[in-house]
């Protein structure tokens, strides 16, 4: 009896060992071998429709805004918008004045924000559902500040910048980089400047003792830690295609949703820009760069920190570069098609089809899509405002918010 029990135990142990070895071999073959792209199916969930996008000045944010507004228009989402497309929610502060905002059609919470306002979580959060994804974008501080300098002297002229350019007429970029304080009016304050650590200002950096804060490492560190807790994703303009792919994955949007054409550049807004001294490559040396880095110390800390965070994120993403390559290939085809449509050139097609891939369903881009992608910021904002006012009119029968011109166009 004991002998039989012993052999039964041995047989059971051997069988168990075989099962475990087999399971390990199967697991090894399935999960330890290199996987080919065709074997990977990225999980697709319900698209996220609640997004708070902080529109940071001169950091490719108008292109992202275009993406957000197109997404909202296609789905009749409710966007937190100013009443007038020529204005912003608040370009120089955090307060949002309700009487200057297009109301929610049914009095509920909004779905998307993508206009300029200095970020303050306590002020913005009540306007949106709790699950809203918070997104921002930053750019290399040198490139961002030079872009702002160009834009706000050629498109929307600021007196203090014009005065600085007049001092350094022959070499304005070198003059600015070496002496940025001469392009700044301290009486206006950092919230009304576009060349003094504007990215950090837009993201809510405490403006008290602003100039001395540039050397306050603990204050800057606390600011960065706070942003890490508040934001789900901070995009990098210098890695724009990678940013769009990561945004698409996090929001579970389609590839078409994050397609873009470049909008709101200084060169595209001013024909005289190409002949300007600001269109020259600046001569950089250690002295001018040290002066500028000290001036833009908060923005440099912001950018370097979130560049590292961003690169770490995409490094962990599966088959990320493969999707970026597919995105660029599709975007190149769409850009060529849109040039033909918008020109328009004779005998062009009225649509282009992009084949299904493992990252997106098949989709078509129409002439109307191209025109939306190419719209100027103010024009697309106006269209979104009209759309929202029309839905207010439909839901409440109230035409008080719709002008006579709007009523005729609607």
From TrEMBL:
Annotated InterPro entries: Gal-3-0_sulfotransfrase, P-loop_NTPase
Q: Where are the transmembrane segments?
A: 12-32
Keyword terms: Glycoprotein, Golgi apparatus, Membrane, Signal-anchor, Transferase, Transmembrane, Transmembrane helix
Q: How does it sit in the membrane?
A: Single-pass type II membrane protein
Subcellular location, principal: Golgi
GO cellular component terms listed in the entry, alphabetical order? Golgi membrane
Q: Give GO terms: molecular function aspect only.
A: galactosylceramide sulfotransferase activity
A GO biological-process term: glycolipid biosynthetic process
- Places the protein is found: Golgi apparatus membrane
State the Pfam families in the record.
Answer: Gal-3-0_sulfotr (PF06990)
Q: Which family does it belong to?
A: Belongs to the galactose-3-O-sulfotransferase family.
This protein is called: Galactose-3-O-sulfotransferase 3
Which species is this record about? Elysia marginata
